[in-house]
Amino acid sequence: MTTMLGLYNYWIVIFLMMTGFYVVIAQGNLVKKVIGLNLFQISVFLLYLTMGKVDGGTTPIQPDKSFFSGDPGNPIYSHPLPSVLILTAIVVGVATTALALALIVRIHEAYGTIEEDEILVQDRES
Amino acid sequence: MTEPIATRLIVILLLALLGWTEVTIARMRQLWAAVMLTGIFSFLGAGWMLILDAPDVAFTEAAVGAGIATFLMLATLGLTTREAKSPTAFKPLPLVVVIATGIVLVYGTLDMPHYGDRQAHIHTYPEPSYITKSNAEIQLPNIVTAILASYRGYDTLGETTVILTAGVGVILLLRNERRKPRDGVDPTAESTT
After folding, report:
1. Which of A9, A18, A62, B143 is 20 to 30 A off residue A1, Cα-Cα?
2. CATH for A2-54+77-125?
3. pLDDT in tens, B117-150
4. Interface of A with B in 13-42 (CB under 8 A)
5. Residue A33: closest CA among chain B residues belongs to which residue?
6. Is residue B44 part of a domain?
């Protein structure tokens, strides 16, 4: 039971990841595949961030002592490193999404369709 | 688990909505609606990120993930088609692959530290040095910013290189030489990121 409570967040994130993965490999529409890739990506971000969370922790920001009216005590901070890595990953993810979508636009101009099976049929005919 | 009950209920609600949104997207044929739901998924994810003490990531996800990515996908739909074809037949192989991968991943989590565990390796090394030293070394209150811009500055430089490369790639793919431009739509509009 403690295992369940301690790990359920990973399992839900894995469910989210696998649903995104399913959209990528099972759908024939190219835009749908990019959507699936995006969902997968966001789920991976969540997986990283859940590892950085610490019990009773707070945001890793340390204001000046004069910012507090009373004594701030000795706060516990959640891990800052996953946040840093994921900030980089979000921006890189959008860059790759833009490139994939540009490729889809070109494919649509060349083939007149963005369905994978129809593209394959045209390729075999030519 | 020292989180208040209200926070835990909000987390459970957010996770349920995330799962529901994603399953709906997977079953959806209308691409327009699927793209909008992807934006909602991003926002829900950003909400959970805020609870996970990562406000910087939540802001970026809401602005870049839910904003720019949704905009780019809608622009693509405007240039291509709005509806996905109905599937011809249900194929079991992708489902089998996905379930097998999921089982392997769940097996992998059994060794992982529990949610919020203070004794987890990730919280004992090297993190305390970032928190104790960054204020003196970088003089920035936000530790995430201090790491991003200073300790891992080369990483961020590489990130901007990736964005530049992707932007150049998008411009090269969509520039309208040899083609007549579409009415009212600038094919290079997507390169502005």
Report:
1. A18
2. 1.10.287.3510
3. 888 888 887 767 787 787 788 888 888 888 888 8
4. 14-23, 25-29, 31-32, 34-36, 38-39, 42
5. B26
6. yes
